Amino acid sequence: MKSLLIACTAILMSCASTTTSQQKLSDMQQKAELLVTSSQGGAEKPGFRIIKDEKEYLALGKGGFQLVEVGKDPAANYPKFPKDKKVVLYNLGSFRSGSHTINEIKGVSVKNNVLYVEVPGGDYTPGGMEIQVLSDPWFVFSVPADYQFTSVELKYSK
User: Fold this and answer.
1) Is this prediction's pTM over 0.70?
2) Rounded to an integer, what is the distance from CA 62 to the centroid of its chain?
3) Are 35 and 58 in contact (CB under 8 A)?
4) Distance CA 76, CA 91 (A)
5) Which is more confident, 35 or 61?
6) Which of the pair, 29 or 42, is modelled with greater confidence?
7) How far apart are CA 42 and CA 70, in angstroms?
């Protein structure tokens, strides 16, 4: 009976820690959400701006080069504008080769009024055959409305 109790306790502890780690992952995913990303149409220099409302958000689809169906609004496939979060447009600047789009946000944090956005990458190494295409990638993401920051920096991780 004593060994059965120990086994059950170990199972319960294991289940509890799994739930806790899933909760932490879920919390991290709720902090930032990638809404829209494009390899064309951004600004030549890196920078950010806060998108104030849905009208401004949907207007992003009208700028730059995007492949869309004839007669269809480019912003028609955008996710719904999150009203309870702060929405940020980030331009990566101009590149002469390769693919520099952001397809995932691993995490966000704020320190000394800087919003750090962790994204996969940083392993781009030029050389060999490359596609020579000018691109101005950009992406739009949301963070909790109470985040206070005056600048945004990307942190590349593996």
Assistant:
1) yes
2) 21
3) no
4) 21
5) 35
6) 42
7) 22
pLDDT digits (tens, 9 = 90+) for 40-51: 888 889 999 999
pLDDT tens-digit profile of 87-99?
Answer: 999 999 988 865 6
Q: Are 79 and 140 in contact (CB under 8 A)?
A: no
Q: Which own/partner contact pairs does 106-112 have at CB distance under 8 Å and 24+ positions apart? A: 106/157, 107/28, 107/31, 107/32, 108/31, 108/32, 108/143, 108/147, 110/147, 110/148, 110/149
Report the distance separating Cα 74 and Cα 67, nearest Å.
8
Backbone angles phi, psi at 108, to 5 degrees: -140, 155
Which residue from 109, 91, 108, 113 is spatially nearest to 100, judged by alpha carbons?
91
